[in-house]
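Input record (Table S2, row 459):
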Amino acid sequence: MTAPAIRPVLMIGMREDAVVESSGGALTITQPFGRITVRGLPPGVAAVLRELPGRLVGEDEPADRLVASGGTSQEVALLYLVLSRLRPILVHAVEPLLRVVPIARDAVYQPRDLPPDDIVRLSRFALVRRSGEGLVLESPLSRHKVTLTEAAMPLLAALGRGVMVKEAPEALSHLVAAGVAGAGDTEDTDPALRAWDFHDLLFHARSRWGRQEGPFGATFRFLGELPPEPVVKPLPEGPALPLFRPSLEEVAAADPPFTTVLESRRSVREYGAPPTVRQLGELLYRAARVREVFGPTPGMPYEASRRPYPGGGAVHELELYLTVGRCEGLALGAYYYDPLGHRLVTLPARQEDTRAMLAMASTATGGLATPDVLVTITSRFQRKSWKYSGLAYAATLKNVGVLYQTLYLVATAMGLAPCALGSGDADLAARAFGLDWVRESSVGDFLIGGAPREAASGS
Ligand SMILES: Cc1cc2nc3c(=O)[nH]c(=O)nc-3n(C[C@H](O)[C@H](O)[C@H](O)COP(=O)(O)O)c2cc1C
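Output record (flavin mononucleotide complex):
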């Protein structure tokens, strides 16, 4: 890389969303991670701090201005002390290339001079994306983000292969301090880092509190702008097939005790007789029907439902589809489970897609299972993200987990053969069930067989 013709200038400022207010001798700085109040500041120090939001100044300018307005060396020391407390909102800039912005309460920023002959490379966990009208460089390993200008593009492009520190010492020192680039090969040698896939680590960082700047949690960000997705999915077109509804009293009387079910539950991949459509009806009724629709209520501005399995916010964004290979009373094909009407709707899936779904499920068991019935769980993503920011997809996957366990337990109690699957094909499922991948696609798969093979053979 040839060194940039520009001469970088180091500057500092506050996050643009920081607000500084003074009243009654106290200076209060409000920012996304909370509020800091400093009392008893000399007027000169307070004045310098009040001017910081919304603009960048040279790194030494606050202290220089304080001295120029008659500030003592004690006051300068106090200014630096207060600035160190403001770490989570201090922006460091290498103008005109980049700005390093903290995104977490406990962001620590310590740029230091790097050995001139060191080679710095972009982290393999770093990503560049558009945010507003600019580009932002981030990494889940970092508690900062870096905004980039067009002038930084040659440097960024060269960071794939590596750039010698002496070619851009200021910018590289800040990129390393921001945790998006580094010298050395820690990422390739540290066993803990090697074990992370790029997308998994990013998902982990952004779907928990800690190192992301929100909005996060139940923010209802589309309230008043878009209606929530309906509590149950509008029925797809196709012949409907009412399912058997068991009497819960009879089921409760006949079931093995809870601990027997829990202790005998296991994953079964080889089957005896196929399940009957009556058994499927009982399984779906006991595990996945809508028991009740309720709301909106104060604090919950959407219609929700209760089902046998729990669901974050009672949103219940998950849908069930069956791909039937072998089932007494049900033809080979694809079906949507209507959890409110407790019936199956036959879908116009192509046979080759149905067979591909079953083959994919078999592969997931290492070829052990010849699937009787594949239950594919999809998510209506917008139903979840209407309420939740940041964690919507993570919460959906957790909901898949509880539905898996509910299917496991009910199937075990019924003497069926359950097995969860961890690797479905969301594109194939969207094609087979006629779904728009972005709006609703598969997030889980579960096999249901008739009796386990050894039970069928009496062993
Ligand atoms: C989330 C999840 C994903 C799974 N994925 C698969 C899979 O893809 N293929 C498979 O044969 N079993 C799969 N299983 C079943 C596990 O292999 C099984 O639960 C584990 O070996 C323990 O055995 P047990 O269920 O009989 O107690 C999965 C289980 C869970 C909970």
